[in-house]
């Protein structure tokens, strides 16, 4: 986005629900990015259940963020699916595989930062 990228956001332990999605993704990242882009901003997500909660829908509407309509799990249409595949391949190619959650978190952050 805009020739750059945000830090990789890794959710802490627990399930992701609509409230967490709003508080940890939509408010700190998407709302600010929409502000930088202006009215031409069109938001794309992958139709995960927590993306479609009443809380998420209401927040997007209150922030005047338009969501792109498209099919769920369409990797050819959603570039982030290719990013997840790339990260998975990079992790699998590591000589030392992460064993703990902390090691996995650090490995993902390293690979994210090294991604071209």
- What is the percentage of strand-forming residues? under 5%
Rough outline: globular
| Main sheet: strand order | 1-2
- Determine the fraction of residues in helical runs and give it as a percent range: 40-55%
Individual helix count: 4
Question: How are the SSEs ordered, and which strands pair?
Answer:
Layout (H helix, E strand, L loop, with lengths): L17 H20 L4 E2 L10 H9 L3 E2 L11 H14 L8 H14 L2
Parallel strand pairs: 1-2
Helix pairs in contact: 1-2
Question: How would you characterize the overall build of this protein?
Answer:
This protein is mainly alpha-helical. Helix content is 49%, strand content 3%. Strands 1-2 form a two-stranded parallel ribbon. α2 links the parallel β1 and β2 (66-67). α1 runs parallel beside α2. 7% of the residues are buried. Residues 43-95 form the Tc1-like transposase DDE domain. This is Transposable element Tcb2 transposase. Pfam families: DDE_3. GO terms for molecular function: nucleic acid binding.
